[in-house]
Design brief:
Helix content: 25-40%
CATH superfamily of the largest domain: SGNH hydrolase
Strand order of the largest sheet: 7-6-8-11-12
Number of helices: 12
Strand content: 15-25%
Order of helices and strands: HEHEEEEEHHEHEHHHEEHEHEHH
Number of strands: 12
Number of domains: 2
Length: 375
């Protein structure tokens, strides 16, 4: 063996010993633990949510639970709200209704959601030889990224003829507002980045193989969060007509003795769950997937009690790409001086809000599905 090679090998021995010692200490003292975790979503307390490798979380099939304001939620065998899906009939026109908690129907009964009422209205306008089945595939706290993944993983197998898409608020939430179990290493990743890190990152596999490297990974992430927390970053909700302070509280917490305490970060500084560029790409993919499968696409531009009429990246995309878009603001804000009139809170429509939204939406989409009103 050459002298230079021998010297190099011997010089590595102290480094290897130090790394081995560090690895042993990390394992003995259980140092490879996150400093911060995200607090649970409300649905997790009620037994409705289960982990999902690609969607992050999903509704638990064949579950009956009580939701906000004691509304009963029936989750079918396919894992969405409503009755079990049967084989498609020859005269059946299927609509998949994708969206966030408004679509899911937070605070209202199964039969009070705008998706359910939309089906009722369309069927009342039809002759008996056509049946419209509107599937409520809305999920609380879902982003447009998750909605697209759901369509690709499950929705297409339901053989839809039309897809309705209702996403805005959750896309602009801080990246910390996901379901329980995420830590500081994921707190500043968009949903797309988080997804890619789970499936495409060889570095994550290397880090996961070592307790010491995992410890360093957590500490670096915490250091990065503290740096972002000090920056003066504008509220992302300004882009979608929601002014003032971030309308949601923090969810990043410190876990001590089985109890969660707020970490005290300005979490809107960590970035939004779906960036503006990703949002355009997601809706472009919605369009491409629907065109490829001969499915009508209708985008609903959401409205909230605390939002104002606005133009945004979504409205510009729909205009430029000739995508059908339904503006929900006029329906949910009939009296501009009483913004909460049709809402249970700052975000979620009440029973009457769902009724009006379903009525106006039915009138909007009826021509696109070739249905003629009997009125």
């Amino acid at each position: 063996m050459k002298k230079g090679v021998k010297y190099f090998i011997y010089s590595l021995i102290p480094t290897i010993l130090l790394l081995g010692l560090a690895e042993g200490i990390a394992r003995i003292f259980d140092l490879a633990r996150p400093q911060f975790v995200t607090a649970p979503l409300p649905g997790e307390f009620r037994g409705m949510i289960q982990p999902h490798e690609e969607l992050f979380w999903a509704l638990k099939p064949n579950t009956v639970a009580k939701e906000a304001k004691h509304a009963t939620v029936n989750i079918n065998a396919q894992g969405f709200r409503g009755k079990n899906l049967q084989a498609k009939k020859e005269n059946e026109y299927r609509i998949i209704s994708l969206g966030e908690s408004t679509t899911f129907g937070a605070g209202v009964e199964d039969y009070e959601t705008y998706s359910y009422l939309l089906g009722e209205r369309l069927n009342s306008a039809l002759s008996n030889d056509i049946y419209v089945n509107v599937m409520n595939c809305g999920f609380s706290a879902y982003s447009s990224f998750q909605g697209l993944k759901y369509l690709e993983l499950y929705g297409l197998s339901y053989q839809p003829d039309m897809v309705l898409v209702y996403f805005e608020f959750n896309d602009y939430l801080p990246s910390t507002l996901r379901s329980y179990g995420f830590d500081e290493t994921k707190a500043y990743l968009t949903d797309k980045q988080l997804y890619e890190s789970k499936f495409n990152s060889w570095t994550n596999k290397i880090i996961a193989s070592s307790k010491f490297l995992t410890f360093l990974h957590y500490r670096y992430a915490a250091y990065r969060l503290k740096g972002l927390d000090k920056k003066d970053i504008s509220n992302p909700f300004d882009k979608v007509g929601i002014e003032g302070e971030n309308p949601v509280g923090g969810r990043l917490a410190i876990e001590q003795d089985g109890q969660l305490e707020g970490a005290g970060f300005q979490e809107s500084n960590f970035g939004q769950r779906v960036s503006e560029e990703e949002r355009v790409e997601i809706f472009r993919t919605f369009k491409d997937v629907c065109e490829k499968n001969n499915i009508e696409l209708v985008v609903i531009h959401p409205a909230y009690a605390i939002s104002n009429p606005h133009q945004c990246v979504l409205t510009r995309f729909c205009s430029e790409e000739s995508v059908k878009i339904f503006e929900a603001f006029p329906s949910l804000h009939p009296d501009i001086n009483a913004p909460h009139q049709l809402y249970n809170d700052d975000v979620h429509p009440n029973t009457m809000g769902h009724q009006i939204l379903a009525k106006d939406l039915a009138e909007f989409i009826e021509p696109y599905i070739g249905l003629e009103s009997s009125n």
